[in-house]
Design goal:
single chain, 3 helices
Length: 82
């Protein structure tokens, strides 16, 4: 499961970078990379929060704070089907 998830993340990042490279200059691409890394850290913290047994609402609130200014939407890209 972890390998397939990692593969999907890497594929999404590769697609993002290929699109970004066509529409952005080097400075913008570097900024996008930094934002993706910051979002990845925020998502890892959210996963650890959920693993610790905290309520989803608490973990989501922490994620929103961590993603403020770097992601679009209140779920920082974490909204998915349950």
């Amino acid at each position: 499961m972890k390998k397939s998830c990692l593969t999907l993340i890497l594929l999404a990042l590769a697609a993002t970078f290929s699109i970004a490279a066509e529409t952005h200059g080097d400075k913008e691409v570097k900024e996008d990379i930094a934002k993706h890394r910051a979002m990845a850290v925020a998502h890892e913290a959210a996963a650890k929060c959920l693993e610790s047994g905290m309520k989803e609402a608490v973990c989501l609130a922490e994620l929103q704070v961590a993603c403020k200014g770097i992601a679009i939407g209140k779920f920082c890209g974490l909204k998915h089907q349950h």
